[in-house]
Design brief:
- Helix content is 38%, strand content 20%.
- The chain is an alpha/beta fold.
- The chain has a 5-stranded parallel sheet, with helices on both faces. Strands 1-2 form a two-stranded antiparallel sheet.
């Protein structure tokens, strides 16, 4: 039951319980430890406040004209299989059934992951995007290049998270 009573009632940490503020959450999924933390954060928000759904979005670079078609198709299929397997592993570790309908996985081919995520978020009506501050490229600058570009390009709020223990 949602408490909509007097001043301050129904608030938890400044966010109304049962709020629809973050009903649809998009998680940038590259299989990294930071992406795992992003998925965990999204689950927490959905369970605690929204009761909505999560889309884990993987953006893979498309084949270039210079690459052999059959080899690139095989590479893309392998990359797609790896992100799906990693998502299944993480869901199992989080105690979730891989068939859990709260989490849907989509894969796009686009040479510009930040722009693809930002566009997807708007086109599909997401309320929040959660991504790792640093993705697969690992340690380095304060914020990774994809996260930096996404924060600049997104028309919806973006939450950056660190890998667990970082």
């Amino acid at each position: 039951m949602i408490d909509r009573g007097g001043a301050g009632a129904g608030l938890e940490g400044g966010v109304p319980r049962g709020s629809e503020m973050f009903r649809r959450i998009l998680v940038g999924w590259d299989g990294s430890a930071a992406a795992e933390t992003a998925l965990s954060a999204a689950l927490h928000l959905v369970e605690r406040y929204a009761g909505g759904g999560i889309v884990a979005l993987s953006v893979l670079a498309p084949a270039s004209h210079a690459e052999a078609g059959e080899d690139r198709a095989r590479d893309l299929a392998s990359a797609r299989r790896l992100v799906v397997e990693r998502l299944s592993e993480v869901m199992a570790r989080l105690g979730l059934d891989p068939a859990d309908e709260r989490i849907v996985h989509h894969v796009l081919e686009d040479p510009h992951p930040a722009t693809a995520i930002a566009t997807y978020a708007v086109d599909h009506g997401f309320d929040l995007v959660i991504v790792g501050r640093r993705g697969r490229s690992g340690p380095g600058p304060l914020i990774g290049s994809v996260a930096d570009r996404l924060v600049r390009a997104a028309a919806v709020p973006v939450l950056l998270v660190d890998a667990a223990g970082a």
